Amino acid sequence: MKVSYQWLQEYLDIDVKPADLAEKIARTSVDINDVYSPSDGLKKLVVGYVESTTPHPDSDHLTLCQVNTGEDTVQIVCGAPNVVAGKKVIVALPGARIGNNIKIKRSKMRGELSEGMLCALQEIGFSENIAPKAYDEGIWFLPDDAKPGESVFPYLGMDDTIIDTDITPNRGDMFSMLGNVNDIAAFYDLKSHFKVQKVNENSSQLTSDLVAVNIADTQLAPTYKMRVIQDIQVKESPLWLQIRLWNAGIRPISNVVDVTNYILLKYGQPLHSFDYAKLPAKQIGVRFAKHEEPFVTLDEDERQLDSQDIVVTAGDKPVALAGTMGGLETAISNDTTSVALEAAIFDPILVRKQARRHDLHSESSTRFERGVNPETVETALNEAAQMIAELGGGAVTKGIVTGSERDLITPTIVLSLSRINHVLGTTLYVEEVVDIFDRLGFTTAIDGEQITVTVPARRWDVNIEADLLEEIARIYGYDNLPSTLPEQSSNIGALTERQQLIRTSRHVLEGLGLNQAISYSLTTTEKATQFQVEPHSNPMQLDYPMSQDHVAARMSLISGLLTDVAYNVARKQKDVQLYEQGRIFVTHPDQKRPEEQEHLAGVLTGELLTDNWHQTEHHVDFYDAKGIVERYLTNMALQQKISFVANHERKEMHPGRTADIYIGETLAGFIGQIHPQVAKDYKIPETYVFELNLELILAAAKKSRHYQLISKYPAISRDIALLLDEGTTNDEILAAINKKGGAHLVNVHLFDVYEGAHLPANKKSLAYTLTYQDSQGTLTEDQVNESFDKVVDYLTDQFNVEIR
């Protein structure tokens, strides 16, 4: 809520700097978004008097204005269609700064000198949503008593300071000037001068003869009251009222509508005004809407209502979306002569859901959602009726028509002084505690050290002992509470084995050149089902998503990483290597809640290493991604065999460059290039990805890790080139060599692959280097030859290879 400091000063004798007050509110009550003055950044804006106007000799829409700026009369060229002589206007003098930090200079417009600018409200920083519509196409006219040459800021309320508070859900009472006055008076120990205007029922007509209210379901509207104001004239509100509204971020419309918004700000009580003559019937009720019942709201949108929406009806016809927005058909217009004024409390949960359902978050719905003070419903209705009558020259009919009224709930809570001092660590006396409650407006009864507190209905957030302890602490001052060191245990903190392995996973991938990314766990339904390690049913979807892009829980990490790649590529970052460790949400038909699994995924595009004087550029390929995964799995020291099996069935992946990853016989993930069409959809270049089910890796049996000394004895190598069938894989050959290589075989390296000319059809050549080494002594030529021959014989028998 935007709280006016000048308005606060009408009710409190407060003499602290607005910035200091805001800091105190932030420490004591609610958060602060901003503290600012509407005049910030503006200068040299003064009152001007238009003495005469003449058409521009070389333009059909410009006017030459002779403007008295206090010390002198200057000529200003103006293009506003409503500029006339005899009006006080906003003048930006040469050198002035107006909205958007625009500097005004002395200049010529089509050959005529212009020494300044006549301004509209929008041009001096007012939002289009706040400036009155009547002046949309022209400049603003100041009051007739404004003195030329004086600053315009006091006349427009721009010399005020606005404290923009961020109200937490439990402090709905702070959504009003009354709530802010009560709280500020309590923690500064001030006396409130809050003024309540009484109603003068100066019409002889009874309200009950004009309108009837019947609330069949009081759960929908626990309180509902109405008044009628007759013989009014709808017109522009006085400037003081418009200033109150636009400083609070509300656009002035007319005296009737502006009064309801003013009372909303003052008391936190939303009101709604109906054109009495336009009501289709004079019997008012509240009910659930019918499914797909049409209704046109004040913003001129026709909405299809839901059966859980609540509507105010006249007869049985909806005339307002209760607590959210009125209907266009019964709206106040310039022809309105009688007003039916509503003050009510509606079910907060239903109002919140319908506001979200229709994307209609109004000032009224915001307050109904957080709660409305039941003590001031009638007070607000009376004051609004009186103000409408005064500003519109009308008369208030006798009596209030009440359809429902909830009893005030004033909880009584008992607490002891010893309990207060024990929890807060203080040494307060009973008199000090009672003084705090008196400042808050809570009633107390004392019995020795026992204090019985009766909480007023306006503080519906205070219900239990802990709430009262919090009130004492914040009014006494959190800074005044004694500081104590927390008790410490002798236990030494440490990570669990699971936490250690997860942290190790991140360290390994970062060491391999990948950067960590964190993506949203909510995405679109389509993206949520992509890139699953194992196919599952539909993803978990939210009933009330925050946006169309966040409707379902992810079932893979890759789609989020591809979105990150697209973001970077769109900003000319071509080399992107990312990983993410996080949870996915797998649904099962027989379970209400999804299974949460920890996964690890990576994405690579562009170049891992940039080209330089000794290295040419190398774009990421399948083997770079595979090498990263192999190194990671090697570091995790899994006992079971790791294997990569080609898979042509994953629809989001390239059919010829994709492999499933198995731990033993269990599918643990996949690796490969994303399908070119999918890459096109994401607007990214050729990209390689992998995803692993980290739960399987964490649960898998691990090898015991031992250090091995580096052998001081020389190694001996043997090269072998094999001519074999095209279908035989490198993995099969490596397994065979390691099986028969003997105890001294320490490394097998594939250094050449050849296919093509000079080889028989359907054949290929693979060349390997086998390295032998003993940690206990020097190997002899015979030992190496014996081991090597066993490998050759085994390969010949098993694969029918030819040694080249």
UniProtKB/TrEMBL annotation:
Residues 408-483 form the B5 domain. The gene is pheT. GO terms for molecular function: ATP binding; catalytic activity, acting on a protein; magnesium ion binding; phenylalanine-tRNA ligase activity; transferase activity; tRNA binding. It holds the Pfam family B3_4. NCBIfam families: pheT_bact (TIGR00472), YtpR (NF045760). SMART domains: B3_4 (SM00873), B5 (SM00874), FDX-ACB (SM00896). Its EC number is 6.1.1.20. Belongs to the phenylalanyl-tRNA synthetase beta subunit family. Type 1 subfamily. The lineage of its organism: Bacteria, Bacillati, Bacillota, Bacilli, Lactobacillales. It comes from the Bacteria. Residues 711-804 form the FDX-ACB domain. Mg(2+) binds at residues 461, 467, 470-471. Binds 2 magnesium ions per tetramer. The keyword Aminoacyl-tRNA synthetase applies. Its main location: cytoplasm. It catalyses: tRNA(Phe) + L-phenylalanine + ATP = L-phenylalanyl-tRNA(Phe) + AMP + diphosphate + H(+). GO terms for biological process: phenylalanyl-tRNA aminoacylation. Tetramer of two alpha and two beta subunits. Residues 39-153 form the TRNA-binding domain. This is Phenylalanine--tRNA ligase beta subunit. The keyword Thylakoid does not apply. One of its GO terms (cellular component) is phenylalanine-tRNA ligase complex. Coiled coil: none annotated.
